[in-house]
Amino acid sequence: MGTALQTATAVLLVAAILAALHVPLGSWIAHTFTDEADWRVERLLYRVVGVDPRAEQRWTGYAGSVLAFSAVGILGLFGLILVQGLLPWSFGRSMDWHTVLNTAVSFVTNTNWQSYAGEAGTGHTVQLLGLTVQNVVSAAVGLAVAIALVRGLAREGAGRIGNFWVDLVRGTVRVILPLAAVAAILLLLGGVIQNLARPHVVETLGGARQVIQGGPVASQEAVKLLGTNGGGFFNANSAHPFENPGPWTNLLQVVLVLAIPFSLPHAYGRMVGDRRQGVVAVDVMGTLLAASMALAVWAETAAASSPLGSMEGKEQRFGIVWSSLFGAATTGTSTGAVNAMHDSLSPLGGGVVLLNMMLGEVSPGGVGTGLYSYLVLVVIAVFLAGLMVGRTPELLGKTIGRAEVTSAALVTLTMPALVLLGTGLAVSVPVSVGARLNDGPHGLSELLYAVTSAANNNGSAFAGLSADQPFLNLLLAACMLLGRLVPIVLVLRLAGSLAAQGRRPVTAGTMPTATPLFTVLVLGTVLIVAGLTFFPSLVLGPLAEALS
Amino acid sequence: MTSSLVRTGWQALPAAFAKLDPRHLWRSPVILVVWVGSALTTFLSVLEPTVFSVSVTIWLWATVLFANLAEAVAEGRGKAQAETLRRTRTETTARRLLADGSEEDVRGTELLLGDLVVVEAGQVIPGDGDVVEGVATVDESAITGESAPVVRESGGDRCAVTGGTTVLSDRIVVRVTSRPGETFIDRMIALVEGASRQKTPNEVALSILLTTLTIIFVLAVSAVQPMAVYSGGRLSLVVLVALLVCLIPTTIGALLSAIGIAGMDRLVQRNVLAMSGRAVEAAGDVSTLLLDKTGTITFGNRRASAFVAVGGTDRAELAAMAHLSSLADETPEGRSVVEFAREEEGVADGGDVVTLGRSGATFVPFSATTRMSGVDLADGSRVRKGAADAVLGWTRAEGGEVPGDLEVHVAGISASGGTPLVVAAADPGASPTVLGVIHLKDVVKPGMRERFDQLRAMGIRTVMITGDNPLTAKAIADEAGVDDYLAEATPEDKMALIRQEQEGGRLVAMTGDGTNDAPALAQADVGVAMNTGTSAAKEAGNMVDLDSDPTKLIDIVAIGKQLLITRGALTTFSIANDVAKYFAIVPAMFVGIFPGLGAVDVMRLSSPESAMLSAVIFNALVIVALIPLALRGVRYRPLSASRLLRRNLLVYGLGGIVAPFVGIKAIDLLVSLLPGL
């Protein structure tokens, strides 16, 4: 089968599964966050935490709760990893303080950048009680913030945008945990391991000694993908046969990564009472993802140095097409998982996955973060184009005025600022320059990729870079923290100012936001904003490497 | 147009140079960044003068200058108008009326709120106010440009006078309603000069977005240098500044304030004064127009449109009697009956009022109690014409008969929204007979239906406001093609309607002139007061139409939309331009470090220096090229939003991507001839 045909079949297969999945899952998510009744387990949780589930919050209160929850999460995880030597199943594993800080920030911000090697840095207790828990709740936080923004668009003249604690609990209990349970069972059936075994030493046929690691992999793997986290149980991440044994689990992993991000648009459409809005979002996200998948495959075959395509750093059991698709899907969803080493991608292939992150994680982006980043770009697109129809721009009857533009513009500014300043710093400081594996443009790509991955809360690693050192750990931790929390606060501010507004009626004079033309407009905005910001960096990194 | 623009531009040059003062530029952060960049390259060129750095520096300063020029030209047009206005504000001496009835001469500028002043024929009214005593004709051409004098009288809706206008006849006493220095003319001068211009809400939001973009590009360019150093080739600061200036949205940054000033100016040219830019912008957002029926949709007077004979009467006789009964009727309706009878029914010129009067006829004038008018001839025959029940009452009281088919016709005319006037006549000594009905009807101005169709396509709902009964209102509404109507409207109803529309999220525009319109004018998002209206109305509205033409509301909406479209279109164009500039500059910058990058150089410009300089030159020239468009505004077509969007995205989005590829390439061909580059 030709590569092009194989790619088309693979993309269509994934698209078909998602097409079948996104309506029921999206409806379920919309129901989850609009349901009047609480589940018994939820009421119990509210009583334990002391939250009145009917007391809604203003955006400031909501943002305060997110920040407090994140702060507690970071401190808790930081403490847990520091004292892991005292806990069972730790097998004497440990990390430096700066690695611990980096890891704590990384998992709480849904980044899952790992500057430690999975099987060497953490024991089973930290994996289960620390990392897996954060994998679940950090995804639920992203979901909650996206839902709060959607409420801002759905409500009229409202001062409040929901209750963070309720959204967090419901997202966890009703969406992520049930799906993760199903996913874990499917992964187990596919051959992923799940045990609490100690490392097992075997003698290979050739007479060498090999350490076989065990652990509760399937449970963490499920939520690693479903929550667009990406932190691998093992250092090799989804390239490791215990995490991702074969083609079918690989397909399952790609679907798991994309499931919630592609379902949220439908939930959005339902909640604002105009499903076409959700269709536009799916179209934009789908187009970007399909294009990046096609480009990645093209870069790994046609544009690769070897005539048979670039197999360096890829697993034989996945091949070029499924490795490229996996790379595009995970970099497009702020999932740090990899099933091939991105450092070994062809120069342009590395550029494609890099660009995928630079788009601001909207193809389709992480759980919640994808939808809210998309909506922020829609606000920008509506403002620019809306003026051209001769009215104050509006989205779903909400005026995009000073407050809304300020919030949206600052969100759009945050990530590029972190990436550009961070990379500028990283390429100028000897300690980080010395951490590269390669010289020249490829080395620049390594640094650029690390900072981009951190600032976008992706967590995917280019590999090659020895990131486990104080300077890079702290720089990347700062990027992850700011790249996560600054946009969240601004998005909630946007939600607050949108919710407070009344709704203008739709007339023939209103700019339609559910047409193919508008889809093209949003695509153009996404590409131009990212392109204008990162073109010089991409030229000096991947492009220079490809053309020299 | 073009030559006058060139002249204005030439005249505005000194002002543009004066605006190079950075204190002036803080209002426009984008241009301030260019200014700082220009200062930096000037410094660098002095240290190390090369043809490239000197040329870039010159063109960077030109960019700032062109931005200033755009603003100065826009302001210059307003200044010319302000100059004309200022001449009318010559020092006047006012005759202040004291409590004891005596007068004292004071300077016009010393008048206080509430002072009474006497103005006589030939004198200039010293300040804005209301006539409290007397009637006078006033020449208001100084502010309206209309040379025909207008009547101003105490009480009622025609009592307002404007300072700077001249009394042509009679004597009036005016109560001053404005503080010194805050008269209508003062405000007009400030408005057209742009002195009191504040950024409108959309302009503020756009500025925030442009500033954010500028920051992103400052960061992007700042990150280029460490990456270039890492890659083994330090870039010169001149190159970095050139890149930055090309990327930040200088085009829209330079033209933004000119667009706003020109928008106000377009209104002034149509004799509409907006009290704030906010109101102009709101006009573009309006989704409901409240239009007074009288004077806006219809000519304002009911006119005779048919004679319907009843009870076997000959129509010619009815026409003759209707004509006779209306001869002395000086109301517009009465005159229209005479006109219609003569022109349409061929009634011979049956004498006039004077001849009839000499022959001994007595005219019965119309009164509110009798609600009919007519004439008693010398031979004893009598004719009456008036409201149906009044004439029928008279007929029956005199013992006359009412034909059975009358009722049907009267009801029919009423149902069609017309007004039936019944005509009855009595031969000498005989009882009266009802002859028939005159169909009076409100005539809709030609072309209204098309305008309302256009408004509907733009998404604007039109509501007709009238004091007529619902039946009449509906008929006119159907004929004119408005979307809705409010019949038997009181000022309270109007207010309630505005509130109701606003609660539904709609922005409402209306016109008004009377004092009782003032609350509604204030409540409406766009309230256009007629210049003939009262001071209260003019105070309450946020625009004043000097021509007092209520139809102009539709033009005002179009101007508001045009303002927003121009801003949006030029912003889109400005940002789209960046794509080409990147392709011109970036390969040129790095091709020295990585020769392979020549493959990205799709434009094939003659040399790296020439590429960068050409982009800078294009960036500067495009500002000048777009000044006429910024001043004139993007042509507005009354289309639906989706069609407008498609059109403007194609022209300014796609055009914005393509134009600089062509422009930079052309400039490069010229620049490459420059020796030493």
Structure description:
The complex is a heterodimer of chains A (548) and B (677). Chain A has helices spanning 3-34, 40-49, 59-82, 97-108, 118-121, 124-154, 164-190, 217-226, 247-271, 275-301, 319-331, 347-358, 369-386, 402-428, 430-433, 440-455, 470-500, 516-547; strands at 200-203, 209-212, 394-395, 398-399. Chain A has 548 residues and is mainly α. In chain A, the strands form two sheets. Chain A has a two-stranded antiparallel ribbon with strand order 1-2. A two-stranded antiparallel ribbon of chain A has the order 3-4. In chain A, helix 1 packs across helix 9 and helix 7 (164-190) runs antiparallel to helix 9 (247-271). The model of chain A has no long low-confidence stretch (mean pLDDT 92). Chain B has 677 residues and is an alpha+beta fold. Chain B folds into four domains: 1-79 and 207-255 and 558-672, no CATH class; 94-126 and 128-177, Calcium-transporting ATPase, cytoplasmic transduction domain A (Distorted Sandwich), CATH 2.70.150.10; 272-297 and 445-546, Rossmann fold (3-Layer(aba) Sandwich), CATH 3.40.50.1000; 301-443, 3-Layer(aba) Sandwich (Calcium-transporting ATPase, cytoplasmic domain N), CATH 3.40.1110.10. Chain B is 53% helix and 17% strand. Chain B is built from 24 helices and 22 strands. Chain B has a seven-stranded mixed β-sheet with strand order 10-22-21-20-11-18-19, sandwiched between helices. Chain B has a six-stranded antiparallel β-sheet with strand order 2-1-3-9-4-7, with no helix packed on it. The longest helix of chain B is centred in the last third of the chain and has 39 residues, at 552-590. Chains A and B meet through helix 13, helix 14, helix 16 and helix 18 of A and helix 7, helix 10, helix 22 and helix 24 of B. Chain B: ATP binds at residues 329, 333, 366-373, 385. Chain B: Keywords: ATP-binding, Cell membrane, Ion transport, Magnesium, Membrane, Metal-binding, Nucleotide-binding, Phosphoprotein, Potassium, Potassium transport, Translocase, Transmembrane, Transmembrane helix, Transport. Chain B: Its main location: membrane. Chain B: It holds the Pfam family Hydrolase. Chain B: Mg(2+) binds at residues 513, 517.
